[in-house]
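Sequence design from tokenized structure. All designs in this work follow the same two-part layout: the structure record, then the generated sequence. An example of the structure record is given first.
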């Protein structure tokens, strides 16, 4: 239920609440948080209410809050970018909020008024604009989230929820920066199953992936390549990103059939490469086909796509003790072009033919 009279109040941080800005050359990812946050509440009687921009601070939850027991928690990942002339842009925020509402429906949580929340987000970023980094490649990461807060035990949809947005200035997602990563093909654990919640950005999906990621790190790999849960042979995602393969000049990515998150960057890549005249296929691809192409030298490039990393080139796959190096372990031409083009659009340094940018303020 949407409250048509929902108004957003503003409570600015006082001077003593303002934080020192971190060193922009040593931001890392998700370590620092801005002066303000947005939050609002929902219950079955009132719909959405108590919407406000306020100083960043903890909030209290009862031990019986249903999010702790039954996992109703969804989130999104977005960014704000500072251009060379000090304008600040968002990239496809409407699509992120639309996807979040789709996640809400799948998790039996209330949808929220997207336009109103986008207005509030723009106001909050304008208020905290000094937190948007000026260092090349650095951005302001934006994390909207929704959790079940009703204090009750018993498996059912909660009747109270908290929606909030926090922001964090970030550098590169991977420590390696924009350089090829080493990927371990996971054939023991699975990320999602048909009919499950793989196409929702829900917290449980990420919790379930941690063990495989830790084991891959212990073996010296950056991330894992997930296979399907039924036959353990079809490629699905890489880490928390969508995956692409360039084989014989054909760009291939797994189709969205319910177990894969519909990435905003994935969709942007598909649009750009089609604009450029590439042959593109959204089809199922087996790990055996990938390995065979690697052995034959026809696997020209592979890369992951996502908001955090943007484009993450893959330099090597390891599958059952087989090591496949891609493009001599170097960044491929298409990966590099996509990374550059997307970054220049996002930072306002290039024409935006698809109208993906939204100006803040």
């Amino acid at each position: 239920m949407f409250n048509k009279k929902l108004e957003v109040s503003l409570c600015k941080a006082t001077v003593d609440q303002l934080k020192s800005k971190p060193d922009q050359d040593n931001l890392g990812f998700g370590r620092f948080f801005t002066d303000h946050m947005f939050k609002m509440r929902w219950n079955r009687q009132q719909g959405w209410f108590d919407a406000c921009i306020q100083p960043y601070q903890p909030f209290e939850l009862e031990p019986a809050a249903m999010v702790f027991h039954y996992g109703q928690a969804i989130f999104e990942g977005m960014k704000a970018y500072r251009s060379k002339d000090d304008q600040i842009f968002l990239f496809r925020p409407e699509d992120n909020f639309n996807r979040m509402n789709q996640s809400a429906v799948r998790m039996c949580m209330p949808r929220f008024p997207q336009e109103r929340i986008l207005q509030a987000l723009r106001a909050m970023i304008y208020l905290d604009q000094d937190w948007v980094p000026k260092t090349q490649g650095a951005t302001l990461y934006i994390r909207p989230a929704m959790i079940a807060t009703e204090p009750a035990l018993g498996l059912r949809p909660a009747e109270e929820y908290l929606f909030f947005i926090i922001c964090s200035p970030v550098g590169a997602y991977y420590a390696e920066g924009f350089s090829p990563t080493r990927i371990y093909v996971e054939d023991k654990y699975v990320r999602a199953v048909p009919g499950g919640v793989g196409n929702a950005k829900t917290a449980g999906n990420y919790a379930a992936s941690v063990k495989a990621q830790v084991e891959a790190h212990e073996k010296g790999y950056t991330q894992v390549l997930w296979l399907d849960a039924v036959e353990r042979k079809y490629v699905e995602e890489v880490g928390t990103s969508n995956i692409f393969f360039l084989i014989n000049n054909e760009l291939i990515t797994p189709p969205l059939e319910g177990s894969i998150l519909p990435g905003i960057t994935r969709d942007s890549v598909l649009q750009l490469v089609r604009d450029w005249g590439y042959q593109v296929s959204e089809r199922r691809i087996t790990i055996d086909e990938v390995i065979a192409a690697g052995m034959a030298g026809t696997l020209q490039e592979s890369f992951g796509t996502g908001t955090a990393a943007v484009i993450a080139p893959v330099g090597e796959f390891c599958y059952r003790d087989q090591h496949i190096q891609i493009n001599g372990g170097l960044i491929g031409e298409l990966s590099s072009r996509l990374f550059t083009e997307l970054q220049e659009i996002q930072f306002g340094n290039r024409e935006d033919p698809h109208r993906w940018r939204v100006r803040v303020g």
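The longest strand covers residues 160-170. We note this feature because it recurs in several other targets discussed in the main text.
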